[in-house]
Amino acid sequence: MNLYQLHDSTAIVTGGSSGIGLACVELLLEAGARVAFCGRNEDRLRSAETHLRQRFPQAQLLAQVCDVLDANAVQAFAAASQAALGPAQVLVNNAGQGRVSTFADTSDAAWAEELQLKFFSVIHPVRAFIPQLQGQPGASIVCVNSLLASQPEPHMVATSAARAGLKNLVRSMAFEFAEQGIRVNGILIGLVESGQWRRRFEAREERALDWAQWTAHLARRKQIPLGRLGLPKEAAQAILFLASPLSSYTTGSHIDVSGGLSRHA
Fold first, then answer.
1. CA 252 to CA 25: how far, in whole Å?
2. Domain ranges across the chain
3. pTM
4. Which of 155, 158, 227, 234 makes a 20 to 30 Å CA pair with 82?
5. Which residues contact 87 (CB under 8 A, 6 or more apart)?
6. Least confident stretch, 34-43, 123-132, 210-219, 244-253
7. Buried (b) or exposed (e) across 158-182, using 16+ Cβ within 10 A?
């Protein structure tokens, strides 16, 4: 049984060379989809592509270097994916990282950079792929967002504000695109294992703690009820649900994938 009902569909994943994006590409390939993914770092992209082709030798796959903040590059990626794999039915927007700063130490340039990244990493791909999504049965867009959108942190003021704006954008697009048969949803992630957390682990002061102990301590300090960081695959599973016909009556919504960290109703 093809649970996600995505066999023979074409899916696009931005920021797909590592973390949640790569986990999403893997699950989409397991579901029988054709997948095009992009990333900015060519070495990381090619490493991910090699891994995927070894694991899925029969997969229809396209990996292309692309900066989602470059509108022309995204348009070229859209054209290349359509030529290679056919029109997209699923678009997963997964690009961007957090900025640690308070209001007092966030410059105008930093504000502009953060807002541009969070908004245009979604706007450019949606603009490029919307002509392909139109008319596709079960077309869907899923945006990877953060719990910061609903539960801001003062030490991440710019990212929190930008994430809240993205949450609003998802609902606006869902309303506008509904007439075209395109659903738009998102996920709100908490603390998920990533390269960023691995780098913090390597720089840790508590040298006696291994990764499992260190992350468990972090989870307790952050008061995560499930007592651990999330796995990229766990976020990707929520993305696949929203991307697939399993959520055919869901649009303008967000799934909380934070291990219970959310404190809002």
1. 23
2. 10-192+230-257
3. 0.94
4. 234
5. 10, 132, 133, 136
6. 210-219
7. bbbbbbbebbebbbebbeebeeeeb
